[in-house]
């Protein structure tokens, strides 16, 4: 930091005095281009509200198409699909995850047929499809097997790529899955399919509302994901995870959750200089919405401030349940 002078020749408030000079020295800006909209697609007609996530609904494919059209109109570049299968389709091995007629595969085809220009990102992990709610395959002791899980994730990724997904996004935290998925995509001729790696995904307690949304909460029960997701105490480990995923061929790198991990976003962007994304997760959304519902916080002002903070930390994009609402607010102007 260079010395900035001294009072009174330097008065920091001069530039803050008027709107024009505040605008001229503004360092970061949030636009619709920064936003990715996560959506839950269920295998039934209509819409269903999600507990603890006011404004978020599980959508049928027909309803998804309406939401996709709004995203396009608002200039939001991409949606991220999370499947909510019929509970009867869940198995111990999560095989519904790579069913070519599964809910996500059908949703991808419908979206790409109708709105080819909208980016379609898809979540790669087994948790919505397994009877135990884990992201991978457990051995007899309950430990999640790494390499066997990676094989399943490859099948899921290939089925999404074949359906037309633009970006596959492994959120499981198995070791080596990025490289194995990348090699399989290349072999199958899907050389344009991008990989958004959840490189630094923490074993967070902020995922609760999401687990209810995809219907894995009850199945997971008292289980946890500590043997594969990262310890919230760690920071250097996140950089090693991202570095490995760079070497394995990911195109985009995600830190998750968002607000409590902005220091990680900052380190990844500034130390590794890669396209960096952050996920403002379900619990972060729920906190803001709950406070707003009580009249304790101004929803619009606080949400836009939180989203801007991701940009300031260095994020190139943000996955947020606020994406459409924020894009509308931005369009309407300050
Ligand atoms: N593959 C699981 C997955 N993918 C996205 C989220 C959380 C997203 C959110 O909370 O909004 C989770 C939950 C978990 O790891 O248990
Ligand atoms: Mg890793």
Task: Tell me what the structure shows.
The protein is of the alpha/beta class. Helix content is 41%, strand content 17%. The protein is built from 13 helices and twelve strands. The strands form two sheets. The chain has an eight-stranded parallel β-barrel with strand order 1-4-5-8-9-10-11-12, surrounded by nine helices. It has a two-stranded antiparallel sheet with strand order 6-7. Helix 5 packs across helix 6 (177-187). The longest helix is centred in the middle third of the chain and has 18 residues, at 146-163. The protein is globular and about 70 Å long. The two termini are 32 Å apart. The structure holds the ligand NCc1[nH]cc(CCC(=O)O)c1CC(=O)O and magnesium ion. The ligand NCc1[nH]cc(CCC(=O)O)c1CC(=O)O is lined by residues 123, 125, 127, 135, 171-172, 207, 210-211, 225, 281-282. The ligand NCc1[nH]cc(CCC(=O)O)c1CC(=O)O binds at residues 123, 125, 127, 135, 171-172, 207, 210-211, 225, 281-282.
